[in-house]
Amino acid sequence: MAEKDLYAILGLPKNASDADIKSAYRKLAKKYHPDLYASAPASEKAAAEAKFKEINVAYGILSDPQKKAYYDRYGTDNPQHAGGGGFSGFGSEFSAGGFEDIINNIFSSFAGGRASHVDRANARIDGDDITIKLSIDLKEAAFGCDKEITVKRVEKCSDCKGMGTKNAGGMKTCPKCGGTGEKRTVQNSIFGQIVNTTVCDECHGRGKIITDPCKTCGGRGEIVKSRIVKVSVPAGVDSGQSMTYYNEGNAGKNGGANGNLIILLDVKPHPKFKRKGGDLFVEVPITFSQAALGCKVEAPTLSDKVVYVVPEATQSGTVFRLKGKGIKLLRKDTYGDLYVTIIVETPKGLNREQKNILEKFENITSASNYPKSKKN
Ligand SMILES: [Zn+2]
Ligand SMILES: [Zn+2]
How confident is the prediction for the chain on average, in pLDDT? Predict the structure, then answer.
């Protein structure tokens, strides 16, 4: 089976760094995210979906140090396709845990130390995205609205510029790792010498120890801040759609990019109107006599009322379509329609006199008045 070049899928050369892989993935995932193609033509939607899947598969392998090392060596992520069968038969000789450990060790030496750098605190790390759910009502969704939301995010400490100390002599090289941020151990095994690299537990991989920590951030170089963000929701949005504010998420570390702020919209149900895309549906009750004789009704819309003439002999359940009285379509200049369902309300609690009149009326009606219920 021919395998696709996972680096090419992400638009990268084979020697791309972990930071490049992450950054390329984020860009492409944003570009092909299914949310953006919700109203696209079917073929465009399917193509974006396929691309989105492909990017995710590639990133799933290249972001996992063990899978990446295997892929870099064999050009596949699937041991069945690798040929050679180098690992077959080993399983029985080791307990499950021991076998995993050995495989992990082999992978870290195959990767030439690259994979083991992933968790080092001084590597460039992009900030995480922040997703906030914003509930709005149907009117706000239909006409758009401005909202202020409170966002708690990680920011670089401005007092120490992210260094963790305000004074140049406030940090020293870690004595335990000599500034590499790594702890190396050499282990002899049946596969030869295995070099194990782990994060230095003294400096947590920074390579430096802060001796005079910044008082604002306690030496962490970052602080959590609450901010008010003004959000402008465009007319025509619907539940499940999201708005992305690029670089407004958590701060990155060591020059990594900021994450994004994603506003996930939730449109609350309306007591009167139902919605389907740009179309609105509403029920309007009228009396039995109004239905028989015809009448003018006021049909509600989201902004005002429209007067509609109901013709005589209108049956319960009749639907009238008021063109363009629905919701504006997102990023378009067209509007959906308003569908008004007429419900004939049968009178309740009639007194003797009212009943007498209705009985008299009933007796003088025939199949020409009631072609369904009085048909012969
Ligand atoms: Zn600080
Ligand atoms: Zn150290």
Answer: 83
